[in-house]
Write a structure and sequence with these properties.
Number of strands of chain B: 2
Number of strands of chain A: 0
Number of domains of chain A: 2
Largest sheet of chain A: none
CATH topology of chain B: 434 Repressor (Amino-terminal Domain)
CATH architecture of chain B: Orthogonal Bundle
Largest sheet of chain B: 2 strands, antiparallel
Structural class of chain A: mainly alpha
Shape of chain B: globular
CATH class of chain B: Mainly Alpha
Structural class of chain B: mainly alpha
Strand content of chain B: 5-15%
Number of helices of chain B: 5
Number of domains of chain B: 1
Order of helices and strands of chain A: HHHH
Strand order of the largest sheet of chain B: 1-2
Oligomer: heterodimer
Order of helices and strands of chain B: EHHHHHE
Number of helices of chain A: 4
Strand content of chain A: under 5%
Distance between the termini of chain A: 38 Å
Shape of chain A: flat
Distance between the termini of chain B: 38 Å
Radius of gyration of chain A: 20 Å
């Protein structure tokens, strides 16, 4: 288990604990009832972080994944490109919404950004991994 | 870039997997190194050269078309 995974587990644990404590506080003290929304956000976030960390640990153990310099280099480049592409998509969405050509609510906009970033990361990683290197001339 | 990894690997009867394990990289990295498609870091080049009992100079050959700086020196009488 890497240090990063340990940190993620710790943060996830803390978030879940704080969420549960806040839930208990607002149950016992009706005065603080409006913080229930905050605790309702913290608990799932913490649990997702814990579950994802455990899945990552299990997968890395099972597949014996070696993060060599080529993989790390390609991954870093991929994330940078995926982020740039997502920013471009955000700009296009902004222009479309500003010109009233498209009606978007916050949930849909976030979903589009998530999907764009995730899909572009997977596709770009696959592409660069097949190429051999990121700056192949 | 041309590499002589395959030649040296055959000399020491090493598989790509074995060499990859020796230098701590994925087998695919060795595949792309052999094909000259991946530019390794100085450390990886050193590790591969060490694993194959040779030098970096001997293992990686760069086909530079440009003349080196020493050939640009003009001697003035």
């Amino acid at each position: 288990m890497t240090t990063m995974i340990r940190w993620k587990l710790l943060i996830g644990g803390c978030m879940t604990t704080v969420g549960v404590l806040l839930l208990l506080i607002c149950t016992w003290m009706p005065l603080f009832r409006n913080i229930v929304l905050f605790s309702g956000t913290l608990i799932p976030m913490g649990l997702v972080l814990i579950v994802l960390s455990l899945i990552t640990t299990w997968y890395e153990k099972k597949a014996d994944v070696i993060e060599d310099e080529r993989t790390l280099k390609i991954r870093a480049h991929t994330y940078m490109k995926a982020f740039s592409f997502s920013m471009l998509v955000v700009c296009v969405l902004f222009i479309l919404v500003s010109l009233k050509l498209l009606v978007l609510d916050a949930l849909l906009a976030i979903l589009i950004i998530f999907i764009t970033m995730g899909l572009s990361s997977i596709l770009l990683f696959w592409y660069y991994y097949r190429q051999g290197d990121i700056n192949k001339d | 870039m041309i590499t002589r990894i395959k030649e040296y690997r055959a000399r020491y009867s090493l598989t790509q997997e074995e060499l990859a394990k020796k230098v701590g990289v994925r087998r695919e990295t060795i595949v792309f190194l052999e094909q000259g498609k991946y530019n390794p870091s100085l450390k990886l080049a050193h590790d591969v050269a060490k694993a194959l009992h040779t030098t970096i100079d001997d293992l990686f050959i760069f086909d530079d078309d440009e003349p080196g700086p020493e050939s640009r020196i003009v001697l003035v009488d």
